């Protein structure tokens, strides 16, 4: 029986990964901060799919919690075959704001924790000669829209670098670059998304199915849907001044939604 550890596994893309992997017969280790929701999600998945679901209540911005999750990944008695680094949130504050709390928390959860957990999983998996590491990055990492873009640019580059480091070990490393996905992510950030055309929204469950297909094919970069493949191709080839211009336009719309 294979086991997958999913951070942020109770909502959004993380919950979609948990459902899809449970349907495939994976046992699960779900990591999240909200213990009641974590327990409820675990109970539902176990009852529906007949798999074992372990829970770890942890805030990945807290060092002690992060170390507990890393230790679970390196537990040789109960090996983890797939890591899905999904935990994250929107960082709305600007670089010039005096309050840097969101910047610091975003870095800890979506950069430092992703690197540490990826490294812990990689050490354990390379010994066994098999495993999958999936880091949920974002198309946002290809534009220049504040701290969230910078964070996702880092995680994408880090994931590709880890894939190079682990080449030939039997461990598959994949960066998932979703676009806009219908989850709680935007509503929690206070972003209505009303300015985003309907055709640009992705369904989380379908996104995960496409991602798992890419992982099975050994892809290092997974960009679900043809429309976002086109967006990524364009962003990678546009002159940087044009990318910054596009980023300013989108940021202006985003600020209007936050103020609405």
UniProtKB/TrEMBL annotation:
SUPFAM superfamilies according to UniProt: NAD(P)-binding Rossmann-fold domains (SSF51735)
Keywords: Oxidoreductase
A molecular function GO annotation: oxidoreductase activity
Keyword Zinc among record annotations: no
Pfam families per record: adh_short
Keyword Oxidoreductase: yes
Protein family membership: Belongs to the short-chain dehydrogenases/reductases (SDR) family.
Protein's name according to its UniProt entry: SDR family NAD(P)-dependent oxidoreductase
Species of provenance: Kocuria tytonicola
